[in-house]
Specification:
The protein is α/β, with parallel strands linked by helices and 152 residues long. The protein has six helices and five strands. The chain has a single domain, classed as Response regulator (Rossmann fold). Strand 3, helix 3 and strand 4 form a beta-alpha-beta unit.
Length: 152
Amino acid sequence: MIPQKNILVVDDEPMICKSCKEILEEDGYRVEYAYSGQEGLKKALGKTFDLFILDYRLPDISGLSFLERVKAEYLKTPVIMISAYSTVDLVIEAMKQGVTDFIPKPFTPNELSCAVTSVLSKKGEEVERIRDREIIDKEAVRRVLLKLNQKP
């Protein structure tokens, strides 16, 4: 039996957190969530997660600040960033900081499920990112830019 993967969703919108939890639990994952960056950091640093799903804009700290803190502890743990404020510059900066994938809001349950499945299936195969984030997955950037161009 394959062990369940643990996912932490950090977003200040309760509906997003609860929807992600419902969608991903149907896919067989264990999901926890936090409504702020500080609450998310407390959970992230207190337990091992296989994936972080992180909103770019949080009420107390930026998603990139959260990312910096968790990547210092969990360099190999993939991160999917979600945001309603998706721009090419933001996507590129997030990828430089170590984001594995980026999902523009609003997203469908299928988009979330596919992104999570894809990221977790590549976890062991991915090129190990170095601490100063010099390696960027160019294919991931291309996929995200295509998603941004498809959004209205």
